[in-house]
Amino acid sequence: MNYKQTLHEVSETYRTIVAEAGEPPETANRLMSVFVKLVEEQVRAPHTFEPYHRQITAPFDYYAFGVEFLRPLMDKSRSTFTGREVMQRVATQLAAGENVIFLANHQNEADPQAISILLEDEFPAIGREMIFVAGERVITDPLTVPFSMGRNLLCIFSKRHIDHPPDQKAAKQLHNRRALEQMTQLLSDGGHCIYVAPSGGRDRINKAGVVDVAPFDAQSVEMFHLMAQRATRPTHFYPMALATYHFMPPPDTVQVEIGEPRRISRSPIHMAIAPEIDMHAFDQLDRHERREARAQAAWRAVCEAYARFPADR
Questions:
Q1: Is 216 exposed, middle or buried (0-12, 13-18, 19+ CB in 10 A)?
Q2: pLDDT by residue (tens digit) across 243-271?
Q3: Whole-angstrom distance, CA of residue 196 vs CA of residue 242
Q4: Which contiguous run of DSSP H or E holds residue 133?
Q5: HSE toward the beta carbon, residue 238, CA cutoff 13 A
Q6: pTM, full prediction
């Protein structure tokens, strides 16, 4: 990938957006200067992510930089956050040492920063400490890594990319086992909030020009449910709907190779937290039906919340 060309294109658009947001040119110049430096560092000496990556806030605060850099792209005045009463229940459960897993849709690489910005006024600690189940792309692409370094991540290679390249499959499988072992330990320790996108990828625009909420993979949902069952602390599952597509949309088709082009714009963002899912409500079904029913219940809840977002989603 020609990173210099991509950085130039992002830089020009970013400066225009920051100016339109009413920020002084110095703000865009400062943030872009830091971003270019961080990308160059990753090209020269890529950061290696452990299966469980803890956010890096010193000597450089990657978390604060990621939020500050992406904030101008998000029109917060027109953004919405629904489900505050549900999130308060989440906060109470976390404070009691219990775990929460958000089964969510996923629309762009900056979803973690979008969540932090929407939660910063009322639930800042949840937005800051949330652990994200992350795929290969956000821990290997130099344009994304600086933002990923500021988040808590469980790094898992998805089924979509684990066979590419073939000679790395065994190493990726070992990495995934270590990540899942770490997650089991986190759930047993308690008090952790984890975001996972069971679709395994980002939502995309369909032939009608509408952004679809990608279906949830039943095997993925079941895996997290089983891990929660093995933990020594209770775990609660909540659907989370996100509409963040337009400020940094993904390519129209899934790309295997790292190094996708970036299109950025300024837009509102929306998030909704739906009531807790009773994962045991399907226990009377046989194993295969139970697995599908759990995934469908979570996906439908996300779709229903997503459908209630403003039309500018």
A1: buried
A2: 999 988 876 655 545 556 688 999 999 99
A3: 12
A4: strand 131-134
A5: 26
A6: 0.93
